Amino acid sequence: MRKTQVAGLAAALVAALTLQGCIVVADGDGSYSYSSDDWQKQERENRKVIASLDEGATINYIENRLGTPNFSELWTVDGDKYRVLYYRTHRVDSDGETSKDECTPLVFVNGSLVGTGELAVSRIPAKN
């Protein structure tokens, strides 16, 4: 083997070995996995925004500030449309999944914010 071939093989081997372990994890919807630091920052930012919300804020305003909710529920009782958006604000289990008990609910009646947290949810009339 000539020196140039050996040098080329050596360079290819070094490149292959140094690229091992470089993995970007993408979910099927094109989103990326985040480190725990990223989740903690997002949770902290969500808590900060939620704490500053005023009663009467619209769903559009909140989704513009917080993005897509982790969970969303919608139903109508006696002609009033209730929507609850859930945003992740704290960790319960380090399982890589977000569950409702790791979120703060935001309760809307007819498109306007009426309250946040479990107390607001408990005051919603029962679903028909």
TrEMBL record:
Which top-level group of life is the source organism from? Bacteria
Among PROSITE patterns, the record links this protein to: PROKAR_LIPOPROTEIN (PS51257)
Which Pfam families does this one have?
DUF3192
Tell me where the signal peptide lies. 1-26
Record keywords? Signal
The record's annotation in InterPro entries points to: DUF3192 (IPR021534)
Say yes or no: keyword Signal present. yes
Would you tell me the protein name for this molecule? DUF3192 domain-containing protein
Give the species this sequence originates from: Pseudidiomarina aestuarii
